[in-house]
Specification:
The chain is α/β, with parallel strands linked by helices. The chain is built from four helices and six strands; from the N terminus they run H-H-H-H-E-E-E-E-E-E. The protein has two domains: 30 residues; 147 residues, Leucine-rich repeat, LRR (right-handed beta-alpha superhelix) (Alpha-Beta Horseshoe). The relative contact order is 0.08. The N terminus is likely disordered.
């Protein structure tokens, strides 16, 4: 009776086990690769979308439309990003680091009436302007631009340091309204081709104690 209930475990029909064909296996591997690629692309697209939603590409959009401008919206975006460096309230900021941004014009500085130090070097500015309301300005850094003329200082009576090295300036001028100016940097310009007339205006600012030509 016991012998009749025993079932041989080794007797397995070889036809009941089906080995996967080579074609089926390759199709499965291809499907897995396609799934991985689609997952990667969806991740990249999601990352780009989130960046645009946060407004991080606003600068790129401005560049596509032309030269980057220092607009109020651009400043707000920067302050959100550099929240440890700047106050959200414009009037509370006394120092701005707007160097190497690709600006061709100084603008929106009227938003900062208490501004004392401005870094604007390494841009594409060809004219000094837009600082009329920044009467508290003490230090102005405009080196490595394409400025051709010294001007726009009429209201900057508190200015102590003026950095204009590596520009295209041909003559020293426009400093008679800066009675407190003590440091003037003008190396690597085009001053001197006109002789003494290029530097005679230094006599109008006897307060200068540091001069770099």
């Amino acid at each position: 009776m016991v012998e009749q209930l025993r079932t041989p475990l080794t007797e397995v029909d070889s036809n009941s086990v089906q080995e996967p064909s080579a074609g089926t296996l390759s199709d499965t591997v291809s499907a897995l690769h396609e799934t991985d690629r689609s997952s990667d692309s969806s991740f990249v697209n999601t990352k780009d979308d989130s960046s645009s939603q946060r407004g991080e590409t606003s600068g790129d959009e401005q560049e596509n439309q032309g030269a980057r401008r220092c607009t109020k919206q651009w400043i707000l975006d920067l302050f959100k990003k550099e929240w440890k460096m700047y106050y959200r309230t414009f009037e509370l900021n006394e120092k701005l680091y707007f160097h190497y941004k690709g600006f061709e014009k100084i603008e929106s500085m009227e938003l900062f009436p208490e501004l004392k130090c401005l870094y604007w070097e390494g841009n594409g500015v060809n004219k000094i302007s837009g600082l009329e309301t920044n009467v508290q300005l003490i230090s102005l850094f405009l080196q490595e631009n394409v400025i051709r003329k010294m001007e726009g200082f009429s209201t900057l009576t508190r200015l102590h340091t003026l950095q204009l090295s590596d520009n295209l300036i041909q003559k020293i001028e426009g400093l008679s309204c800066c009675p407190n100016l003590d440091s003037l940097y003008l190396k690597n310009n085009r001053i001197g081709a006109g002789g003494i007339d290029d530097v005679i205006c230094l006599l109008e600012t006897p307060s200068i104690t540091c001069l770099d030509l």
